[in-house]
Write a structure and sequence with these properties.
Oligomer: single chain
Shape: elongated
Distance between the termini: 54 Å
Number of domains: 2
Strand content: 15-25%
Structural class: alpha+beta
Order of helices and strands: EEEEEHEEHH
Strand order of the largest sheet: 1-4-5
Length: about 140
């Protein structure tokens, strides 16, 4: 799929001869190769403009912003053994403790940030590792 891009270099279409300068909007597609500042010529070269930022992102309906489609999760209808419930409670407790530790170690870091989540995840892994070694 092709897209409209801002030209980083001046250039000229090898098919129709139209030219463009740095900063102008051009149509570009990697495979099959198609590049031109004229949409009609671009299409004749086999170019096909994508209407979205990325195929997996859809317009939000509020201008030019896009968001990834929500994933639908299907929960299996199975009996959960008590031992698994206990293990899940241990994981939840480790995440809670990791959250508290991350907040203690990085008090100025926003808890909703991706970095905080990464730190919390790593701490939870370490807590569970140490806990599993202690249980052996």
């Amino acid at each position: 799929m092709g897209s409209k891009i801002t030209a980083k270099y001046s250039g000229m279409c090898k098919i129709c001869g139209s030219d463009w300068n740095v900063g102008q909007i051009i149509f570009y597609q990697k495979q099959p190769k198609a590049i031109c500042s004229d949409n009609e010529c671009f299409n004749e070269q086999g170019g096909n403009i994508s209407n979205t930022f990325q195929a997996s992102f859809k317009p939000t309906g509020t201008g030019s912003s896009f968001m990834k489609e929500k994933t639908k999760f299907v929960m299996p209808d199975v009996e959960v053994p008590d031992t698994l419930t206990v293990a899940a409670e241990v994981v939840v407790a480790a995440i809670k403790k990791a959250h508290d530790l991350a907040h203690l170690m990085y008090p100025d870091l926003e808890t909703e940030s991706q970095l905080f989540g990464t730190i919390r995840s790593k701490l939870a892994d370490q807590i569970l590792y140490v806990w599993s070694k202690k249980a052996q």
